[in-house]
Amino acid sequence: MADPSPPARKLPPNEGKISPSFFERAIRPHLGRRRRDVVVGPRTGVDVGVVRLPEDGVLLSTTDPLYIEPRLGWERAAWFAFHIIASDLTTTGRRPDWATIDLAVPPGTTDRILETILRVFDREARRLGTAIVTGHTGRYSGCAFPIAGSGTMLASAAAESYVTTRAIPAGAVLLFARTVALEATGMLATFFPEKIQDHLGRATLQQARAFTAHMSTVPDALRAAAVGLRTEGVWAMHDATEGGVRTAAWEMAVASGRGLIANLSAAWIDPTVREVADLFGMNPLDASSEGTLLLAVDPGRVSDVTSALKSGGAVVSRLGQFTSRPSVVRDGARPLRPPARDSFWAVVREQENARPPG
Q1: Whether 204 and 317 share a structural domain
Q2: DSSP per residue over 278-296, as a string?
Q3: Is residue 239 part of a domain?
């Protein structure tokens, strides 16, 4: 049966994650019953929820869409879908213990495709020590790749053995691992390979495509956490997804209620990323970058955390420091604010809408 991946489509102008203002207006006031056992609930810039358990334990949880992009190839697409969710959970410094998967795919999706997706989920779950404990799988009209359901990952931890962006102390140093626009570069090479090859050459196209193998912060988050958490090393971690590094840094300040004095121009840009960004007119600091990790690190452990990240091949940049003045959030001399739109998705929208129909 034919591959059910969608044709190029005209993209609506408001596609993507809702704005922080909409969250504050329409979501945050409507979160059901207030419970004393909710330690960390939904908040801008916070990747996980935390619920208090008996005997000084907590349950950590995160939920995201299953983003399965057929143009990556089914193996890589399934790997990426799993790691998008795992990346959020491991920003706590913990591995996911349990997962639930709701896999809702369009009619026409073959058993072979479903089996490939499920096999990859199983493989990655085993690697992390994660049990898939419940879920649902089915074919339904109205469903369409790349959004094919949702997944939740959970972990148990002792009350002081995890981190979130809610608890960054003044003085913590902001580190950055890998390159800006990592995900955006790999995905542009997947979506528009002809343009990159025609303008930049086949070697650059291959280098850009290689970024899709690194669109996960799981390895870096676990290496950093192994140094230690809180005063022993890492106070918080956050992956740079929609809105890129600029949004991720701003979200960490907002979530923690701290100020931030940053120099985002110090964030390393891989030469291939720069070439691709220039070709498409994309601002790499504002481009979706799953695989790029930001960390708030205790000042006395910066060297140790940096060494741990470099041991996994990461380039590490020091971007700034958190302060006790929440009203001061700056990138150099300018106020640090999230971009109005993710520059990667703006490029995708422009390129897709420029394609002739058919």
Answers
A1: yes
A2: HHHT--GGGS-EEEEEEEE
A3: yes
